[in-house]
Amino acid sequence: MRMTESKYHxxxxxxxxxxxxxxxxxxREGHRxxxxxxxxxxxxxxxxxxxxxxxxxxxxxxxxxxxxxFPMLKELGIELDVVKSPVSxxxxxxxxxxxxxxxxxxxxxxxxxxxxxxxxxxxxxxxxIRKVMKQMDVLYGVENPNFKDLRDRTYLFKELLPWLPxxxxxxxxxxxxxxxxxPYLRKLxxxxxxxxxxSQHFFKNTPTFFALSxxxxxxxYFYPMGGVGKLAEVLESKFLELGGEILRETTVExxxxxxxxxxxxxRVSYTYENLIWAADLKTFYRITGTEGYSARIRSGFEKTxxxxxxxxxxxxxxxxxxxxxxxxxxxxxxxHGHFFYSPSKQGLGETxxxxxxxxxxxxxxxxxxxxxSWLDKYLALNTYEISIPALKDPSMAPEGKTGxxxxxxxxxxxxxxxxESGWYKEFIVAMEDRIIKALADSVYxxxxxxxxARFSFxxxxxxxxxxxxxxxxxxxSFQEPIPVIHKIQQANRAVVTPIPxxxxxxxxxxxxxxxxxxxxxxxxxxxxxxxx
Length: 532
Description:
Helix content is 41%, strand content 18%. It is of the alpha/beta class. A hairpin with a 4-residue loop joins β12 and β13 (269-277). 46% of the residues are buried.
């Protein structure tokens, strides 16, 4: 639809979780809000799609509350039917089903069975993970105050105020564990294979605290009935119920900031009092003009633009979707519906980074044989994140059938280079074949003869779908200085831009990113407008 009137109190660009959150809170206060989304559906990577009767996640496999999602839903009066999303971890034949805090002891035993020579190092690691889990309990110890009515004296005096000193004390400890996890583990653990088993399913140079908090996150995971995308759906429905408007399959191509106006890909313009940019930040700085503003504002904008445009997005993923003529119960006997599995205890070593960088930087034509040889090793030694929606919600697959979602971290530049060399489709098939073989020869033998159909998303697919720089799925790379706010006590400043009346929200505005932080920045951006 084209709107007959194009002036809005607030324009929100980007219909992911940050944009939906901002838009809904503003619409709740009676503001006229237009949400502009490039796809037909909102949610970004928090979405679920259907194919051949199977339901699959396009992005995230499960969600963590983090003291944010459930309070947000409650404050907006939204009901969402959810179940726990239990996690299993496995290395070769060893598989552990994580049920509660006591599973950490079993995890320690699992690692010692696989790496008996590293018992002392494992004991030190587990001790640190326990400390991190206690700090996580403090960090998310109360419902986030940004989603609470502070006039509620019971919450204020019995929960928030007693928690605040513990929070401030814990934040200091968290900030002291901000170094990359790989060198931290090398000081703690001698065995490089054990280091890989701990770290290779994290983004490169993930801050140590957030990497070692993974056990807490496993216990916090939940799954909306009907798929992860239901979270975005219920929030979108609330926004529309409150009178909000959504312009779908539309991209913003120009921001004329001083005129308070944006232009879309159909050359239609919309004027605003406030703008919230909840999409790729590099795009915003590339297409925004600041003519008419003071020299101070223009200088601040250019400095920020230069800082952001020289940085890269973080790692991307390759995701294989498999439809199987095999009942879910066959898979339930092996692992939970959210499964981190390594077919080999050897670990990737330098396969992922040093060897890959050599391939990417090699002069001359792309050496197909060398890349495929590297791929053999990369996929045999990697850690896979596997999701089976039907083990969480039986309605997610036809009766007697099972859908698998299999993901690995990977590098956008590799796929870009191969696409430019003209053998992208061949490479995708090679990846799919090798992933299936790695898992069929180890944990899921039914993959050998029960596959009905398969398809995949590459980093190029993600870059196209959500217009994310370098196909990144969680914002900025950790391999270089992060160009945005990255301390939780400063999160309120993360939504401010150099331009008055323009705010930012989402995974590019704060690091480390994730759905809870996207929701929080969306709420903080809305708060800024409501207070002004």
